[in-house]
């Protein structure tokens, strides 16, 4: 039912949207038309999944069986990390544990690993994605334990996270990596879109400086510069931020709310106007964002908050005339929160589908993985346990079939 509804909504919107002049892309490349995604001239509506752990697997059979499961469940787009970096002191351990790594940092610079523990693994993931007709969103770095490696190595002893967005050496180093990844895969229609950074914020493991504050436009400037850079390398693939979708609203009612007051760094409405950001993305984790309000008996409703967050983003994307993807969401559980996740997920998903979204829950879970007998540490604390993919802390597997079905 949801799919039919989405389909008819798509038809209506493509009739009414002003036919924006759009560069024509090669056959098989997904592109945008107004507020829709489009593939070979037809609307492309989808439900997909996240899986940061897939390129960390060492067994091609396990990667393939995961794509088989995704395909059976109707996944058409999947999002994963296009980065995995270590520093030189971790190399010996990485070799011993068969860890996947693409960059090794030493003395302020990184070297690329294109070998069997390196980009060959990402090549394999993209190859198998293509076999199952699943397209891939690749993210170039991460606000959490990703860009901090650039900061630590290029400006040792830095006290602020946001130096990443403004230091010319940092930008050059990031762009050198982006160029490596884009040039490697830019002819492939399996790439759905490039993503500049997962969850860019003014702060990360380090705090934000006084130069990254509401109104400074630090992130918007970085988004513009990097999306223009990617576009200069690749005229055809879509580009998006990877951000959480924070707003910068001046309404005093939101003045103390981190998701709305611009303090995080993003300005969702403005960022959407940048010419080389092709569609909008945002994330949704109300429990972790409002821990002080979320306790049994609280008057804070996780469900209602999520529905509003969905509506606000839908309105902004409609205004900007660009497609919209709710690209991460999830609930912790079970037991210590007042509301029941089996009712909240369908409520959120229905609202997202009714308001013309594509959606990617966090995250896809696989069972029956066989490598190393089904038990292996794949990165730091993330492990395969009895054949199950990493559980990402307390965030349990999304009941995926139910979301799509
Ligand atoms: C390491 O991973 C590769 C696949 O990338 C695999 O062929 C090899 O057997 C693995 N080595 C060990 C010691 O598990
Ligand atoms: C290397 O990485 C580890 C683990 O992420 C970190 O604790 C350490 O500080 C890093 N070393 C340098 C020189 O950045
Ligand atoms: C909900 O609870 C908070 C404190 O926990 C209180 O400040 C607020 O006024 C309450 N809102 C309503 C509508 O009862
Ligand atoms: C949660 O919802 C399910 C389905 O509606 C219901 O069967 C279950 O009893 C609910 N659990 C709680 C703790 O309310």
UniProtKB/TrEMBL annotation:
It catalyses: Random hydrolysis of (1->4)-beta-D-mannosidic linkages in mannans, galactomannans and glucomannans. InterPro entries: GH, Glyco_hydro_5, MAN-like. One of its GO terms (cellular component) is extracellular region. It is found in: Secreted. Residues 29-351 form the Glycoside hydrolase family domain. Its EC number is 3.2.1.78. It holds the Pfam family GH5_mannosidase. The keyword Ribosomal protein does not apply. GO terms for molecular function: mannan endo-1,4-beta-mannosidase activity. GO terms for biological process: mannan catabolic process. It is an enzyme of class 3 (hydrolase). Residues 1-18 form the signal peptide. Keywords: Glycosidase, Hydrolase, Secreted, Signal. Belongs to the glycosyl hydrolase 5 (cellulase A) family. This is mannan endo-1,4-beta-mannosidase. The lineage of its organism: Eukaryota, Fungi, Dikarya, Basidiomycota, Agaricomycotina.
């Amino acid at each position: 039912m949801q799919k039919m509804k989405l389909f008819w909504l798509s038809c209506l919107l493509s009739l009414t949207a002003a036919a924006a002049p759009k560069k024509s892309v090669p056959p098989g490349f997904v592109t945008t038309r107004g507020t829709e995604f489009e593939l070979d001239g037809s609307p492309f509506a989808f439900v997909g999944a996240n899986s940061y752990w897939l390129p960390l697997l060492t067994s091609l059979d396990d990667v393939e069986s995961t794509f088989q499961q995704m395909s059976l469940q109707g996944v058409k787009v999947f999002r994963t990390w296009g980065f995995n970096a270590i520093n030189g002191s971790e190399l010996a351990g990485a070799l011993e544990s068969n860890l996947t790594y693409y960059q090794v940092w030493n003395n302020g610079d990184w070297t690329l690993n294109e070998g069997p523990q390196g980009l060959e693994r990402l090549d394999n993931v993209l190859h198998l994605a293509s076999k199952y007709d699943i397209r891939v969103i690749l993210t170039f770095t991460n606000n959490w334990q990703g860009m901090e490696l650039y900061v630590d190595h290029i400006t040792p002893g830095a006290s602020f996270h946001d130096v990443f967005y403004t230091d010319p050496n940092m930008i050059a180093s990031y762009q050198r990596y982006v160029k490596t990844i884009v040039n490697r895969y830019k002819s492939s229609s399996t790439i759905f879109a490039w993503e500049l950074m997962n969850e860019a914020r003014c702060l990360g493991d380090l705090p934000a400086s006084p130069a990254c504050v509401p109104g400074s436009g630090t992130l918007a400037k970085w988004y513009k510069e990097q999306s223009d850079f990617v576009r200069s390398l690749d005229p055809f693939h879509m580009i998006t931020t990877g951000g959480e979708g924070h707003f910068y609203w001046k309404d005093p009612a939101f003045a103390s709310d981190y998701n709305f007051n611009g303090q995080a760094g993003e300005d969702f409405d403005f960022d959407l106007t940048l010419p080389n950001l092709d569609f909008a993305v945002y994330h949704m984790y109300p429990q972790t964002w409002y821990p002080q309000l979320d306790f049994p008996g609280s008057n804070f409703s996780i469900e209602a908050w999520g529905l509003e967050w969905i509506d606000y983003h839908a309105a902004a994307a409609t205004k900007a005339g660009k497609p919209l993807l709710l690209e991460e969401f999830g609930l912790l559980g079970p037991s210590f929160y007042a509301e029941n996740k089996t009712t909240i997920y369908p409520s959120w998903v229905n609202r997202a589908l009714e308001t013309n979204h594509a959606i990617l829950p966090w995250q896809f879970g696989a069972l029956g993985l066989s490598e190393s007998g089904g038990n292996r540490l794949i990165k730091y604390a993330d492990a395969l346990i009895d054949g199950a993919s990493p559980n990402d802390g307390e965030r349990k597997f999304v009941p995926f079939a139910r979301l799509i079905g």
